[in-house]
Design brief:
Number of strands: 0
Helix content: over 70%
CATH topology: Fumarate Reductase Cytochrome B subunit
Oligomer: single chain
Strand content: under 5%
Shape: globular
Distance between the termini: 57 Å
Order of helices and strands: HHHHHHHHHH
Number of domains: 1
Radius of gyration: 20 Å
Largest sheet: none
């Protein structure tokens, strides 16, 4: 049986995942409508649409626009997003049974990515704070970045100094997915890490869909103007 704290975290997890699904649906519909309008624009030839999609793909995958506008910020930002993806994929082992071979094979890369994530995020925050470009970053973005920084730091501390029982962690995680509460893993740091991660979950859909949509619109305007649009 789960403790009262475990039940609280379980209910909070369902609330956060519910918010995630609602926001995922809303932002997904907005994204689909916007892309359909873009693709069905009669004034735009097919070759131009392909070029705009190619530009957007490069922007999403390699941060082409950021590389053009700020070569100092680009390495940290690109490494931050890439390492965040690897860390997320690594954590799939706590939610899947049996664990796929591909997830098992990438565990060493996920561990390394955890350290890269912390360093890259610290670099991004320092550059943003001390480069005179604070006006380009909203308080909401600072909150999310700070949240990820705390999640990353607590995760590294758990791995190196305050290791929880991983069998208990997996049992608790699978219990959430199967609606069968299990005992909360021992260790206050795990509770902090888990709570911080839950707070981050509802923000993920807006970043997944909003960023590509903004880049797609920027690529369309960039194509029309014939210049790279970026911060000054």
């Amino acid at each position: 049986m789960a403790s009262s704290t475990g039940l609280f975290l379980l209910l909070l997890a369902y609330m956060m995942y519910g918010a995630f699904m609602v926001r995922l649906f809303i932002h997904g519909r907005i994204w689909l409508r916007a892309t359909v309008r873009h693709d069905t624009d009669p004034s735009r030839p097919p070759s131009e649409s392909c070029d705009i999609w190619a530009r957007t793909f490069l922007d999403v995958l390699f941060f082409r626009r950021l590389f053009t506008s700020d070569k100092i910020l680009w390495p940290g930002s690109w490494l931050f997003h890439l390492s965040f993806l690897f860390v997320m994929l690594r954590h799939l082992r706590y939610f899947l049974e049996p664990v796929p071979d591909c997830v098992t094979a990438m565990q060493p890369f996920g561990v390394f990515a955890g350290y890269v994530l912390l360093l890259a995020l610290a670099s991004v925050l320092c550059i943003r704070l001390f480069s005179g470009k604070k006006r380009y970053v909203s308080y909401s973005n600072y909150f999310i970045l700070s949240l990820i920084l705390l999640i990353s730091l607590s995760g590294i501390l758990m791995r190196n100094f305050f290791r929880p029982n991983l069998l208990e962690v997996k049992s608790f995680s699978l219990g959430i997915l199967t609606f069968s509460p299990e005992a909360l893993p021992s260790g206050n740091l795990f509770i902090v890490h888990f709570l911080l991660a839950l707070l981050l979950v509802p923000y993920i859909p807006s970043h997944i869909f909003a960023a590509p949509l903004v880049l797609l619109d920027a690529a369309r305007r960039e194509k029309g103007l014939g210049i790279i649009m970026h911060e000054k």
